[in-house]
Amino acid sequence: MQSERMYAALKGLGKEARLVMLPYEAHGYKARKSLLHVLWEQEQWLDKYLLNDSDTQVKGE
Q1: How many Å separate Cα 43 from the centre of its chain?
Q2: Are 44 and 52 spatial neighbours (Cβ–Cβ below 8 Å)?
Q3: Which residue, 52, 42, 35, 36, is CA-closest to 18?
């Protein structure tokens, strides 16, 4: 419920947002497939917002 509200609020402000809800999972993830998917989602986020962001590069690199 809170995740859905946060997602709606961000979208309402015109922000980029992604809400991933996995079937048969509640607050925590137990199924191996779900855990692997969550790790994949996190890696995609890190790649998009950290690795490809020139503002996060250390000066001199």
Answers
A1: 9
A2: no
A3: 42
On whether the CB atoms of residues 44 and 37 are closer than 8 A, the answer is no
Average pLDDT per 10 consecutive residues for the chain, totaling 61 residues: 95 95 88 96 92 61 52
Does the pTM of the predicted model rise above 0.85? no
CB-based contact 48:56 (threshold 8 Å) = no
Q: How many secondary structure helices (H) and strands (E) does the chain include?
A: 2, 0
